[in-house]
Amino acid sequence: MTRISTVDGIHRRYLHDEVAERIRELVRSGELEPKSRVNELELAERFGISRTPLREAIKILATEGILELLPNRGARVAAVNEAEIDEMLEVIAGLEASAARLLARRITDSEIAEIAELHEAMLETYERRDEARYFTLNRQIHEAMMRAAKNATLVQLYAGLSSRIQRFRYAAHKTPEQWQRAIDEHEDMLRLMIERDGEQLARLMETHILGKKEPIAAQFGTMGKNAMS
User: Fold this and answer.
1) Which of 25, 42, 67, 149 fits as disulfide partner to 103, beta carbons 3.0 to 4.6 Å?
2) CATH class, 82-225 region
3) Going by DSSP bridges, is the β-strand pair 67-70/74-77 parallel, antiparallel, or unpaired?
4) pLDDT per residue over 20-76, tens digit each?
5) Which CATH number is 15-77 given?
């Protein structure tokens, strides 16, 4: 394994894998928008690495559909249209439902305690109407639930697909009613995890994820038909 001390702290795993994860996070956060070009020189300087592992990371992300390779012009963040978002949400709903069935049998008390702590912090951000922090904690809860399923293949599929639409999934503004419904569903998720009721939790996860279609369409629908296509 390559170890390297850098400004952004890239020093573990195979270097290109770590770089790929850093770029995924830039896409998730919206710092790299759909159709924006990947500036190799800028990212290499930012991460304190050469362009060789960066290009290897770009190839990995291209196979995942997160980036698009442009002939003789580098790479850009893949565009996503409204129909693709709908399709991906349907698949993500299935993955999270599968994870729910698995975690009901495999989750530990300490993992439930971790998720409960994230849940309480998320409730506090909801009371403050701190949307940015709320969405971060919301994402962390879903990711912790996926890890608790203890299925590496499931986690890998979820991470690759979720990275493509995470900005839309977590940044779409909800009406007060939609936001309250999401909070109520998260309360039920925690209860069902504690009860280890995998079937009920699976059905709830499908409903919860597919319920994101409406706020996403309301906020990003026009952009999905134009800039994102």
Assistant:
1) 149
2) mainly alpha
3) antiparallel
4) 889 988 887 778 888 889 999 999 999 999 999 999 999 998 888 889 999 888 999
5) 1.10.10.10
